[in-house]
Specification:
The complex is a heterodimer of chains A (389) and B (378). Chain A contains 11 helices and 8 strands. In chain A, strands 1-4-5-8 form a 4-stranded mixed β-sheet. A 4-stranded antiparallel β-sheet of chain A has the order 2-3-7-6, with no helix packed on it. In chain A, a hairpin with a 3-residue loop joins strand 2 and strand 3. Chain A starts with a helix and ends in a 5-residue tail after the last helix. Chain B is α+β, with helices and mostly antiparallel strands. In chain B, helix 7 packs antiparallel against helix 8 and helix 8 runs antiparallel to helix 9. The longest helix of chain B has 37 residues. The two termini of chain B are 29 Å apart. The mean pLDDT of chain B is 97. Classes of the chains: A alpha+beta (389), B alpha+beta (378). At the A-B interface, helix 7, helix 8, helix 9 and helix 11 of A face helix 7, strand 10, helix 8, helix 9 and helix 11 of B.
Chain lengths: 389, 378
């Protein structure tokens, strides 16, 4: 038996023994995600157990080094772990901006001390992070941000406002882009971490068209942040930010990964004698969408294989982000059409409190957050196609 | 299997692109057209291509081929889409070879595959009878006659049918139009008595034939596969061919796109390169995205075809997506080139014409989107 086969067998057995049955059922909504952090209330003992067991092996972050709380797995081993989890329909033990966004940036730009301090609590789900990027006057033109830091020797004093901070009201720490030099636009931004419990930090949730409030306005009034939590060099935060954004974009683009619509459509609409959806125009729309969706799924596979083969993908994440989010919006439009008037229920048990409508409305933000589709198209045209600015 | 080309396939890609760019660029197709060449391709060049191994990519090495499989055929087809090299590659090396491999007896394979791989014999498939691809609608009749059969009816849209040495004909031995049962494949010589071949010059400066069968005799040994049971093997072979056609469409789209991006950088209006205008940048970036996802669908389908088994779902996905993308790419290329894109002197016209023919060949977007849905259970 090869090493990888042995790893698969061992992993399968461990998952069978350790993944609680209730963690093998599909998540029904937002409430079933495990976000971790100081303020998090576990939905069940199983949810807590599952997180702790996975974290004990470093498998919440399978490819991170062991000394930073990871599993130390190779890409091939991590792929096996993912496929074995999928096999038993195991839920993700931990959903975390720390894992998805900050972690990769810290691994690349952080000092050994910073990694030791911040990565293991992320891996164990003890500290929940949020991202302080956008400001009221710095959206697509992010580098024009104005929240500023005053140098006070061993620390900074921070003043300003962020907006669209995902779950700022639930987060423990924030990674933030702060202006440390006003004489240069891109070269005057630093990447700074600080505790959301610090004096002078306040948050205010923003109610969205979905009725949910996943985003906040975040205010900083003379907040103290220690210099040991400056990541990378001072005034070089834009480099860290761009690297992190490619991870964020890849993460968002995965939302375009489809669960096929065929089952839903057949159940809801019924088929004619030939086994085809009775509503022919909708059938046509679904097929057209699914052809793109499946082609996109294979593109995600190809992009991963290209990286494995050692090819630099660079701005490819911009294309994946733009395409994946537009697909996801299109897909939810189709889900609404397939469900007809059932999709418009806003309250009540039948619709799980309007899950279909709320999810559909939420997708409208996909092509705005993490850089709008139009910003991604700008990046593709400049960095991939080399068109003049 | 990793969804990238391996080293051997990468080398094939480079050698195909190098060879075709040098020996068979689009200017050669233009010359064939301007000379009103009756063959529609250069026989010498086809011999050279065969020596390069292009004619036998789908033929095993023991039978004189290069055994590169569908991924290899897709690589060469994509390169041909970029240069529009005219040859019987698709008709003989891809479609006919696939059908013979899927339906032929050992003796038929031994007799034909090495000759196809060597480029010595050109074989083509006659399947369509109307302006629509619909194999099961075949009405061309094959009636028992002595030990063999007599074929009567019409075929159209038969690529290189005017010069092929042998033609594989889909005929009905029983049942009604629309039945997948009762279909049989026959191998007939182009010069057979009672077979009238009308050369048709196509919009893409290539040639196909309309065939009229007036009681053409076919011996029992001309039957390819079992009588009445041809549909499954034919559809499987066509699926492989459809994916290779998708690869040629991908090559066309990629070429038109690359040319357009270069033009956007060079062409100046209002004192600046037109590629600095966001309206054009976004269209270019969107076209880039469509081509990228098409490339993934095509490569995945090629790999699945080599892996064997039923690949209808993958073939319809690839052919539908490539057809749509090639249509977009050729239209956008002409629009973004402006007036020059409309001139015959400029090459873009050759690409849009070839694209539409290939989009239609063996099922267009609607055909394959419908089939994709059926294969997906709806």
């Amino acid at each position: 038996m090869s090493d990888l086969e042995a790893f698969r067998a061992e992993t399968r057995a461990w998952l069978e023994d350790n993944c609680p049955p209730s963690m093998r059922t599909p998540m029904k909504g937002e409430a079933d995600f495990c976000w971790g952090g100081r303020k998090f209330k576990f939905q069940s003992d199983d949810q807590k157990k599952w997180l702790e067991r996975m974290a004990s092996r470093g498998w919440t972050v399978p490819t991170w080094p062991k000394e930073y709380g990871g599993g130390g797995l190779s890409k091939d081993e991590a792929k096996i772990l993912a496929s074995e989890m999928k096999r038993i329909k195991a839920r993700s033990p931990l959903t975390s901006f720390g894992i998805w966004m900050l972690g990769p940036a810290l691994l690349k730009f952080g000092t050994h001390e910073q990694k030791l301090e911040h990565l293991p609590p992320i891996a164990r789900g003890e500290i929940r992070w949020c991202q302080g990027y956008s400001e009221p006057n710095a959206g697509s033109d992010l580098a024009s941000l104005a929240t500023k830091a005053e140098d006070k020797g061993d620390h900074y004093i921070i003043n300003g406002q962020k907006i669209w901070t995902s779950y700022a009201d639930k987060a423990d720490w924030i990674f933030c882009l702060i202006r440390t030099d006003t004489s240069s636009k891109h070269e005057g931004i630093s990447f700074i971490l600080f505790d959301m419990a610090s004096e002078g930090v306040s948050t205010k949730p923003i109610k969205l068209i979905s009725g949910y409030s996943p985003f906040c306005e975040t205010f900083f009034d003379d907040v103290k942040a220690y210099k040991k939590n400056l990541v990378g060099e001072v005034n070089k935060g834009w480099t860290v930010a761009k690297y992190l954004l490619t991870h964020e974009r890849t993460g968002i683009s995965e939302m375009g990964l489809p669960v096929p619509l065929n089952r839903l459509a057949v159940d809801k609409l019924g088929t004619n004698g030939a086994g085809e959806l009775s509503e022919t125009m909708l059938r046509h729309q679904i097929a057209e969408h699914e052809i793109d969706a499946m082609s996109f799924m294979f593109t995600m596979e190809r992009a991963q294989d290209e990286v494995k083969a050692g090819n630099e993908m660079g701005a490819y994440s911009s294309f994946l982000k733009a395409y994946g989010t537009e697909l996801n919006k299109d897909r939810h439009e189709l889900i609404v059409k397939i469900n007809g008037s059932d999709a418009f229920e806003w309250e009540g048990q039948f619709s799980n409190n309007g899950e279909i409508a709320r999810s559909w409305l939420r997708t409208k933000g996909n092509s705005i957050e993490g850089g709008t589709t139009e910003v991604q198209l700008n990046i593709i045209s400049k960095r991939v196609l080399g068109l003049p600015g | 299997m990793a969804l990238v080309l391996n080293e051997e396939q990468q080398l094939l890609k480079e050698s195909a692109e190098g060879f075709l760019t040098e020996k068979a660029p689009v200017s050669q197709l233009r010359k064939l057209r301007d000379d009103a060449d009756e063959t529609g391709f250069s026989k010498e060049l086809w011999t050279e291509m065969s020596e390069m191994g292009f004619a036998g990519l789908l033929v095993d090495e023991e039978q004189g081929g290069t055994g590169f499989g569908y991924v290899g055929a897709g690589i060469v087809a994509e390169a041909m889409g970029k240069t529009l090299s005219a040859s019987p590659f698709m008709a003989s090396g891809v479609v006919a070879a696939s059908v013979i491999k899927a339906a032929g007896s050992d003796a038929q394979k031994e007799a034909l595959l090495p000759a196809i791989a060597a480029g010595e014999v050109i074989v083509t498939l006659a399947v369509d009878e109307t302006s629509r691809h619909a194999p099961e609608e075949t009405v061309l009749k094959a009636e028992k006659s002595g030990d063999g059969y007599k074929l009567s009816g019409m075929k159209t849209f038969v690529p290189e049918g005017h010069v092929a040495d042998k033609i594989i004909v889909l005929a009905r031995t029983s049942g009604e139009a629309g039945d997948t049962e009762g279909l049989s494949l026959f191998l007939v010589d182009r010069g057979a008595s009672g077979l009238i071949v009308d050369r048709t010059v196509s919009v893409d400066s290539r040639n196909w034939a309309k065939l009229t069968f007036e009681g053409v005799s076919a011996g029992a040994d001309a039957l390819l596969g079992r009588e009445g049971k041809a549909y499954g093997a034919l559809d499987g072979a066509l699926d492989g061919a459809r994916i290779v056609v998708a690869a040629e469409l991908l090559g066309i789209a990629q070429h038109c796109f690359d040319e357009t991006v270069e033009y956007l950088k060079e062409r100046k209006q209002f004192g600046v390169p037109i590629g600095s205008f966001q309206a054009l940048q976004h269209r270019a970036a969107q076209l880039y995205s469509e081509i990228e996802i098409t490339r993934s669908a095509v490569l995945k389908a090629l790999q699945m075809a080599d892996a064997g088994g039923n690949v209808s779902w993958f073939a319809s996905l690839a052919k539908a997506k490539a057809s749509k993308t090639a249509e977009l790419a050729t239209n956008e290329a002409i629009q973004m080139h402006g007036g020059i894109g409309m001139t015959d002197e400029f090459d873009m016209g050759f690409y849009i014409k070839r694209a539409r023919v290939l989009q239609h060949l063996y099922g267009d977007f609607n055909y394959h989107a419908d089939r994709f849905a059926r294969c997906s259970g709806y």
